[in-house]
């Protein structure tokens, strides 16, 4: 199996998880089990397997931008990095849904945050923080 052959199914799993999160935000099966635990755990296991099997075969490292570029020149390590993004962005999306529910922020305001978090991670989190702050009227930007 090649990195390209794994890339498609990983992306599809992420997309389905995000759609479930956006459409069924009040269902614990989705927010706790599927998007909140099972899918991120699957991504984490995949990430660990990819890193364990390919780390020694890669040049580069994290001490410089050139080192990171060399590290990600290995397609397996690149896929591991992508899987890392998929896992953590989904966990941020789950947190946005749970936090908005706790704060009684209308889900329709959260959906654009979810889409942005799925596509551009930190930008979606930032939009959610702005909505969270304006909706609650508090300057509390801390993640619980």
What would you note in describing this structure?
This protein is mainly alpha-helical and 144 residues long. The chain is 78% helix and 0% strand. It has one domain (3-136). The radius of gyration is 17 Å and the shape is elongated. The mean pLDDT is 92. Helix 1 (3-23) runs antiparallel to helix 5 (107-120) and helix 2 packs antiparallel against helix 4 (75-102). The chain starts with a helix and ends in an 8-residue tail after the last helix. The chain has six helices and no strands.
* Number of alpha- plus pi-helical segments: 6
Summing up helix and strand content along with how strands pair, one would put the structural category as mainly alpha
Spans with pLDDT under 50 lasting ≥5 residues? none
Strand content: under 5%
């Amino acid at each position: 199996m090649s990195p390209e052959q794994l890339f498609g199914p990983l992306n599809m799993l992420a997309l389905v998880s995000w759609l479930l999160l956006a459409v069924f935000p009040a269902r614990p099966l989705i927010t706790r089990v599927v998007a909140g635990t099972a899918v991120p755990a699957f991504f984490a296991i995949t990430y660990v397997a990819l890193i364990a099997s390919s780390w020694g075969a890669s040049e580069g490292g994290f001490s410089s931008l050139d080192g990171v570029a060399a590290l990600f020149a290995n397609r397996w390590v690149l896929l591991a990095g992508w899987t890392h993004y998929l896992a953590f962005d989904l966990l941020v999306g789950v947190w946005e849904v749970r936090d908005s529910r706790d704060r009684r922020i209308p889900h329709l305001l959260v959906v654009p945050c979810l889409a942005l978090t799925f596509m551009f991670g930190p930008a979606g989190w930032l939009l959610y923080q702005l909505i969270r702050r304006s909706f609650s009227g508090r300057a509390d930007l801390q993640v619980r």
